[in-house]
Predict the structure.
Amino acid sequence: MQISAERGDITRVATDVVVNAANSNLLGGGGVDGAIHAAAGPRLLEACRRLRKTTHRDGLPVGDAVATDAFDLPARWVVHTVGPNRHRGQTDPALLASCFTRSLDVAADLGARSVAFPAVSAGVYGWDPDVVATVAVDAVRGWRPQDQGSVEEVRFVLFSDTLLDAFRTALAGR
């Protein structure tokens, strides 16, 4: 699997799957979540509301992932994952790693070949960018699909130089 990091706007990435750093309620929010909802258009919110009425009545648990169509995004699907919030005492790196591995599981189940990730939990959820980068890169490198997975490319698409530097360092193994 090819893994890279780049600075950019994840809502403009042409890929099979864009991963959304979602809130548990799946109904949009700030940061990456708000940007993805805005760029995907109102049908994304409708799809998330359907999930809340059917399979995820209590919301999406931290560390889990679920897919919807991507609607107006240049991707086929959005995989929503809920990162741990350090401000709420969710400090277990295994929960953060699960965001990346469960997202890859869902992407593989969809038949996706390419996945774009943001820096899940590195924003308002209070995780240090260097820790997020290390956990994310290790999780992706260590991921093994249940069956023969189709994911060939993972791109970390990051909105700041600080995040990009952290991910480049983690990818270099320093």
In short: The longest strand covers residues 15-22. Helices lie at 31-40, 42-53, 93-110, 129-142, 161-172.
